[in-house]
Amino acid sequence: MLLILLAVPRAFSTFEVDTLSTSGDFYCHSASLTGTSSPLAAVATGCSTIGRVNLSTGVGTLLAGVPYSQGFQDGAGADARFGQDLYPAVVGERIVVTDAANFAIRLVDLASGDTSTLAGNGDSGVLDGAGGVAQFCDPKHAAHVPFTDYVLIADGRRIRKIDAVTGEVSTAAGSIQLTCAATPSSSAFDSSIQSLAINADGLTAIVATSRSFFRVSVATGRITRIMYTGTLYNFFTSLVVLPAASGSRVMVADRINHCLWTFEQQDGASTTSCVAAGSIGNLGSSDGQGTAARFNSPAFLALMAGGTTVVVRQNDGEIKLVNTAMESTMCEVCSCVSSCMPPIPGVPAPAARTPTSIPSPIRRQDRKFSRETAA
């Protein structure tokens, strides 16, 4: 990706960033998070556990699982066991958790921590169906569809849809190949899905692969490419869709370049994106407005109730709060310029472009993570 920086007026904006002091057993690497119906609470995962974070105090409360104890077991609170990589989505008072290592979807009560298996049986595959009949290939990010009991799950080159009440699983979009080894010719997605988020109206999802961004109809599964980045590197680790008051922009966590950037949901072979917080390639942990802020590999994003706060989970376990209501009128803009690729069936191909390179990743050092018991 070629990043061309310039200053522009109100069309794009930067946001204010503050660090949330955090504590709790699940603040560690391989962790993700999601919002809840409360603007002051988020659900976080990590170290094979599920927990709740108070965004006022930064205190985390363990709900289910035991830190660093992996397994596949239902039960109440500490009796439950999960794999390492967990991706939550909150549906009312329930947490739907993608348990990637166990090829399963787990259900955790937000109040009690009681855990059950909603779908999947521990074996990889592509079967649709209810409960233990369903199979998953590479289940990762999950996103709740507003106004419904459905959750969309990124599963390789597919999007799976699961009913959070019945556990019924279907393939909503992507590959129809009857094996996990989906190829570009069998799927409209050009590579495995890295992340997805749902628009506030619940009608469309925004999907990031390691090459492109797509818009997907929740009802029909129709896929439209809205931006092609041209890189095979997995640095689009998480995204959220900002509400209409903010211009229906998509915010992306770029863990390699240590920043957050946004782009408009316009169709076409090219688009312009804005570095909304952080500075490209500059690792750090400073609070501040827009490009004055610094991140250490921002890995996961969650849009909180009310739509003005985005919670950022870094790879070092630290949580930052981004206030999208505190905007400035100037920011760095990067025009994403990429090379042409062969057409994908059912997806408009991008126009031919000049080949470019992407920023070199910065190797992060191994870090120690707190295992302090949450209050």
Please provide a written account of the structure.
There is one protein chain. The protein has strands at residues 14-20, 33-35, 41-46, 49-54, 60-64, 75-76, 86-91, 94-99, 104-109, 114-119, 129-130, 139-144, 150-155, 158-163, 168-174, 193-198, 204-209, 212-217, 223-228, 236-241, 249-254, 259-264, 272-278, 288-289, 298-303, 309-314, 319-328, 332-335. It is an all-beta fold and 375 residues long. The chain has a single domain (14-335), classed as Neuraminidase (6 Propeller), CATH 2.120.10. It has a 5-stranded antiparallel β-sheet, with no helix packed on it. A 5-stranded antiparallel β-sheet has the order 6-10-9-8-7, with no helix packed on it. A 5-stranded antiparallel β-sheet has the order 11-15-14-13-12, with no helix packed on it. The N and C termini lie far apart (44 Å). Residues 1-12 and 329-375 have low confidence and may be disordered.
Largest sheet: spatial strand order: 24-1-27-26-25
Structural class: mainly beta
Rounded mean pLDDT is 76
How many strands? Answer: 28
Q: Low-confidence spans: pLDDT under 50, at least 5 residues?
A: 1-12, 329-375
Write the H/E string, N to C: EEEEEEEEEEEEEEEEEEEEEEEEEEEE
Helix content: under 10%
CATH architecture: 6 Propeller
The main pleated sheet reads as: 5 strands, antiparallel
| Count of alpha/pi helices | 0
Spell out the blueprint of helices and strands.
Layout (H helix, E strand, L loop, with lengths): L13 E7 L12 E3 L5 E6 L2 E6 L5 E5 L10 E2 L9 E6 L2 E6 L4 E6 L4 E6 L9 E2 L8 E6 L5 E6 L2 E6 L4 E7 L18 E6 L5 E6 L2 E6 L5 E6 L7 E6 L7 E6 L4 E6 L7 E7 L9 E2 L8 E6 L5 E6 L4 E10 L3 E4 L40
Antiparallel strand pairs: 1-24, 1-27, 2-3, 3-4, 4-5, 6-10, 7-8, 8-9, 9-10, 11-15, 12-13, 13-14, 14-15, 16-17, 17-18, 18-19, 20-21, 21-22, 22-23, 23-28, 25-26, 26-27
